[in-house]
Amino acid sequence: MTDPTFREATAADVPAVVALVESAYRGESSRAGWTTEADLLAGQRTDAGGIGAVVDAPGSVLLLAERDGALVGCCELRQVGQVAYFGTFAVDPAAQGGGIGRRLLTRADAEAVRRWGASALEMTVIVQRADLIAWYERLGFTATGERRPFPYGDERFGRPLRDDLEFVVLRRPTAPTT
Q1: Taking a C-beta distance cutoff of 8 angstroms, is the pair 146, 122 a contact?
Q2: Model pTM?
Q3: What PROSITE patterns is this protein classified in (predicted)?
Q4: Which fold has domain 5-173?
Q5: Long-range residue pairs from 27-34, CB within 8 A, at least 24 positions apart, any chain
């Protein structure tokens, strides 16, 4: 397999990004990978409006990873002071476990430093996702101790299948550029 290439998303990429994110987190297709949230949430993970807003917003970028011309991963970076929020992170379930996520995270780290001089990446993960949190911890993220509520009642983020969902905030320092 060839190494992935990276580029910034445009408005034309929005439908493909929505399909990728949905396949990685929701429904039966997500069960082919290990990032599924299908046992925690039903319905959509995102929509064209949400992805389009990331593409269009000043101070944000949606990075794409492609292999042989096919979209295999994406992530959002958004400037929040000296920190870059890292989210909308998805890898095609059929490609998970092959290093694309690590490469995309490394690229995101470098982009956050290059674009904004970010000192850290910050993200939120559903606290019940212990396996995913452990993966991020192996990549240098640590829990800040902060928790954020899940947006119950806002079906743009899905329909919760349990009533105890919340987010844990993770952070890791960015790698300085030389």
Answers
A1: no
A2: 0.92
A3: GNAT
A4: Aminopeptidase (3.40.630)
A5: 29/93, 30/93, 31/93, 32/93, 32/94, 33/91, 33/92, 33/93, 33/94, 33/96, 33/97, 34/96, 34/97, 34/131
Does 122 score more than 60 pLDDT? yes
- For residue 58, the one-letter residue type is P
Q: Which residue has the tokens 């995913």?
A: 132
**Mean pLDDT for all residues in the chain:** 92
The first and second tokens of residue 133, run together, are 């949190």
Q: Whole-angstrom Cα distance, residue 14 to residue 48?
A: 6
Mean pLDDT of 124-151: 95
Retrieve residue 116's tokens.
């904004």
Mean pLDDT across the stretch 120-132? Answer: 95
Of 98, 145, 122, 97, give the one whose Cα is nearest residue 4.
98
pLDDT digits (tens, 9 = 90+) for 38-80: 889 998 899 999 999 999 999 999 999 999 999 999 999 999 9
- What is the Cα–Cα distance from 28 to 42, expressed in whole angstroms? 11
